[in-house]
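Researcher: Please generate the 3D structure of the following complex. Treat every line as part of one assembly.
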Amino acid sequence: MIKEAASVITKVRNKVPLVQAITNYVTVNDCANILLAFGASPAMVEAYDEAYDFAAISSAIYINLGTLTKEQEEAAVLASISAKVNKVPVVLDPVACSAIPRKNLVIKRMLELGRIDVIKGNGGEIKFLAGQASKTRGVDSVDDGEGLEKACVDLAQKYNCVVAATGKEDIITDGERVAIIQNGVEMLTKITGAGCMLGALCSAAVGAEKDSFIAVVNAVLSINLAGEAAFKEVQLPGSFRTKLIDNVYLLSEERYAKEGKVIWK
Amino acid sequence: MIKEAASVITKVRNKVPLVQAITNYVTVNDCANILLAFGASPAMVEAYDEAYDFAAISSAIYINLGTLTKEQEEAAVLASISAKVNKVPVVLDPVACSAIPRKNLVIKRMLELGRIDVIKGNGGEIKFLAGQASKTRGVDSVDDGEGLEKACVDLAQKYNCVVAATGKEDIITDGERVAIIQNGVEMLTKITGAGCMLGALCSAAVGAEKDSFIAVVNAVLSINLAGEAAFKEVQLPGSFRTKLIDNVYLLSEERYAKEGKVIWK
Amino acid sequence: MIKEAASVITKVRNKVPLVQAITNYVTVNDCANILLAFGASPAMVEAYDEAYDFAAISSAIYINLGTLTKEQEEAAVLASISAKVNKVPVVLDPVACSAIPRKNLVIKRMLELGRIDVIKGNGGEIKFLAGQASKTRGVDSVDDGEGLEKACVDLAQKYNCVVAATGKEDIITDGERVAIIQNGVEMLTKITGAGCMLGALCSAAVGAEKDSFIAVVNAVLSINLAGEAAFKEVQLPGSFRTKLIDNVYLLSEERYAKEGKVIWK
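Model: Done. Output below.
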């Protein structure tokens, strides 16, 4: 299994998937840079007049609800509809869905009219979407993670998608298979956008690998292994952020197999 | 007084204030990263449908008029109204108010309907708001600073708020107390966003310290001391920007007392 | 000729041109920082209510069609109209014009109602605008460059402007003079925004140098020479991006003459 997951990085680099991103303005630059470092081709096409048509030619679509303007909201729904028509996978990052009710109206519309293949969120967001009680504060989860694995499986089955919940351990499931990932460093929570960047990597991965579960395992490992390597070099957030991109660029199939700590269920 | 100001960093790290920011797209990533490095929890909630409700659960609100879209304009006014209702302090950065008349309509509306606790601007902006003649060019002040202290005191008394004017020396006042800060390096003017980042730090500080004057003194010292430390390490703007975040992360109560150059009046 | 081109950096640093930018949200921070490092004064004034008036006081205007919101679209057209009235040079980056039809409606309106002095694009975009068949993928050119010089000259003559097409070699022309630039490193394509940053530098250069052809030669040399110097220091994209800004700050007249590889036709 780890070999399959590791091979996704090579598939990404060979295919150079075109990732359309509709994402927040806080970390949009980081998302574009990490996609390039990973081997994908980012295209932040989020204007209302452009989103539907561009989705048709994309390898995958990343929709992040962070700073969702009204125009982005409409573009996100249009892109997910186009994705359904044109059979393009969609990754959703439901930022702050448990704290801000409006986010859920957008998710509902995407589910009803369009397509969602992967939901990547923090523990609090995933539990909330699965209908469980959860604890969040602003855009961050302060949930203890109890019952999170069940929430992930429930949510994956409910919407027939892959779910990834980040936290001290990261959980990935397609409703049947479950992978628990024990890599990563706390410094990833001291910079803005680690979650957004992970969502972007998920999109690149599902744009190059048909098994979305395996693709997302690769993406989660990628940011965690790059984070570990960056933290070995520097222990301060400004410099760490720079080194994180460097180390995504340096990822190799071998490193996943050698350093990945995955529990497969 | 310096001990009180220094202690704010510890209060921020203990409370982890939730800062809602409605800020420009140029430096929004820098603002989020510096807030995290400082110990606060940033949430860039600026959508029209989200701003009012989110303000109610925030510790402080940062409103920066830089690239103010129509949607942000409405969100800013709504957030400041919510801040008044819910007793949440608001920090305003009136970017380019002397060069662009529209900014003042927004400020007027915020003052009439909402709440402003701290105004942080460059010398030209503060003098303009105080009704004095001033010199600005684009978004930068080219004012010589003559009469600036009086302008700060006048403005603070006029709106019953704390005023901070940045320049070679920084001036902070609540209309009675005045602090002149002589720290900082010129390299802070060679990167975009030092002013925006300072505004963000002001928000975090007033979100953790009730005495807004003391809070803002801490914020101004924080960016200046971090800037001095960064400049010791590197003298080029790209690298300096990275090290600035690193050095905000490294700030300690001791450094304020040891290195802060404050004239209290 | 190289001496004339080299001298533009000094003109920029002496004049500190005020550059109004209406640019995409992905790389807006990079554009502001590179303008500061180059010696210009960036002002990202892109709000509908601000764009027309601010254009009148700017030294040059940079319009980049990357993530063009509806509000930015209107602001871009207004700014180009104001530029015509107020005799301010306009640099256009027609991002993805060959992939996204809507971009061309905006360009058409700018040409009809306003003013465009420089068009800076990748090979695919320039060939498309010149009416030639071209190959692009998403926002990137995958064109082989055959016939590109003719496309540049045709386009320059068609709209009476300076055209710059980037690629392995960069081509600059005003319809009569042609310069081929052979500097640069591939790493510039592994970070987001090298093209946007070049567009920003073109604006600063035409804001300080009346001969737009010479100004654009300087801008293209500037990013390429800075890229070469940065790549000598680091070979990874995150760190390279930081060093790129550092090395723009370090540019000197001497380096252009010494290291610039320009074929003048």
